Every structure is written in C-alpha cells, then in structure tokens.
Amino acid sequence: MTRTLAPIRQLALLHPLPDAEFERLRDAIPEVRFVRAGPADWGKAVAQADAVLLGHQGVTVDDLLGAGPGLRWIQTASAGVDRHLTARLRASPVVLTNASGVHTVNIAEHVLALLLGFARNLPVLATAQQRQAWREGPVPDLFEAEGQTLVVVGLGAIGGTIARKAAALGLRVTGVRRDPVGEAPAGVERVVGLDALDTVLGTADHVVIALPLTAATQRLFDAQRLARVKPGAYVYNIARGAIVDPDALLAALASGHLAGAGLDVTDPEPLPSTSPLWRTPGVVITSHTSGQTPRSAHRLVDILIDNLLRAREGRPLRNVVDATRGY
C-alpha cells in the first residue's frame, strides 16, 4: 500500500527518545519542529502537530484524533498495530505507519535463545542451579537443532529474520504467508500459503508464530490446529497472545502432544499468577520482553527520518498500514 504526504511542519514525540537520537533527528530534518511530550502535556503538543510518533504512554489513537484536528500522519513505535486500528481511524484520512524492522534482530535472537535453551534443556539445569545441586547423570530430553524443521508462520520482517538466522544454525525452514507467490526470504527452503498451514505443521519440529493479530488470525491456533502439529514439537509465540487458544495449548502440553512452548506473549497479558501456564513443565514465559533491545531507538529514528524525507520529497511512505488487512 502506497501513500504520500505533504511535508511535515510539526511532529509531536509521544515516545521517549534518548537525547542523542533526538539531536540526530533534529539535525537530519531541521525544517520540522519536534516537540517532546509526556502524559501531562501531550494534548497541547498534538493540538498544533500534523504528525505524531506514538509510543506506549497510555494515549490512544482516538485520543490523538480528538486532540489534533490537523493530524495527517501517525507513526507508531511498534510493529503491531491491532490496538490502533479503531473505527475512528479507519474512517479518517490520517495515514498510519508502523515500526516494522525495528525489532527484527532482537526478536529473532530471542526465538533462537528459546529454541537452543530447549535443545540443551536449560530449564532443568537452571532449576538445579537454584537448588545449588550439581546434576548427575544424563540431562533428559536433549536434541540437536541442526537438521530439524522449523515452520515460521508469518514471513514479515521479523519472520524473515528468524528464518535467515535459523537456517544459519542448520535448521530447514518452511515459511507460511498469506501470498506464497514471489521470492522466498533468505534461508527459507519452501513457502506455502495459509491454506497449506495444516499440512506443513505436521512436518514441524518447531513452530514460530510471527503473525499480526487480525480478525483472521484470532485463535488461529486452536485445539484442532495444534493437533496438526507434529507430536513432540515446540511452539513459540512472539506475536500476540490471542492468536493461540490458551486452554488448547495447555491441553496439548499436558497430553504430551507438544514437548514445550516458548511464550513471549500470552492471553490475557499480563498473565495472572493463577494461570497454570506458569507451572506447566516445558513452558518458558518471557513476559513480552523479546522486543527490548538497546538498538530500538536508533532503528526507530532511522525509520522516522526516512519517512520525513519521503514526505519532503513526495515519495511513498515506508511501512504504511493497510487498515483493511490490519497490518
């Protein structure tokens, strides 16, 4: 989806940036007035702005549309935009762009950390360390990742990076995306459409969920779909918790059909302390931390500068969200 904008005059920053990145932004686009704003003064900043960098300060898209009559563009600090696509935004002419590309490296490394942690059964060894007990005898349930099959469901920027890094470790990667036609990302041996998802799940030693949350992907991994996964496989969710039915996941783990799950996201979130997932053997929960990286601000400012230059020059913006598709 392509969209262009007239040059931006004032941009309200509703996402904290380190001073060095703020100065880099101002130096790169000197004709734009950048206004840093927080929870107490965001309304005043947005009222005069024609663009906003929206982060996680509790301000919603509808809040912005109500406070900023001149808004033409909202750039999010996250790749996922499911919570931003309100009816009011869909009906407005405001352009929404996301931060796809900011978290590719760190989330891919997070997935591989989980996968290799299961390969060497680090949860068992970590438990022994907490007990200050030197473990004797063979470590159970070890495996070697090299030569195993990884199915990446969702081949966007994050899914593609996971595939490339996993292939470098010797895994055989199958990718699943809405449109299987076209060139496969680096490291992907085979690309299929969502209509073939159930078939390729039966070949998977590992399944990574890297899809956006939309009406079509809500509870995509229900009991029937999880039953299609190869017995003894591992499932990793670094997308949105609502894509996986938590009760179905618990049942698949309890029965032994799945050997384990690496969950950076859950449904609900935060996960209540009463959830049995916390106590289920074979489950590693990382509390939605896969997106954290010391490089995120730098990569986000790269995207912001790029889009501001594109607006200045009348070129199509990068990472424009299609409100119909939901990503």
UniProtKB/TrEMBL annotation:
Family in the record: Belongs to the D-isomer specific 2-hydroxyacid dehydrogenase family.
Superkingdom of origin organism: Bacteria
InterPro entries xrefs: D-isomer_2_OHA_DH_cat_dom (IPR006139), D-isomer_DH_CS (IPR029753), D-isomer_DH_NAD-bd (IPR006140), NAD(P)-bd_dom_sf (IPR036291)
Protein name per UniProt: Uncharacterized protein
Organism expressing this protein natively: Piscinibacter gummiphilus
SUPFAM superfamilies associated with the record: Formate/glycerate dehydrogenase catalytic domain-like, NAD(P)-binding Rossmann-fold domains
GO molecular function, one term: oxidoreductase activity, acting on the CH-OH group of donors, NAD or NADP as acceptor
Keywords from the UniProt entry: NAD, Oxidoreductase
Claim: Oxidoreductase is one of the keywords in the record: yes
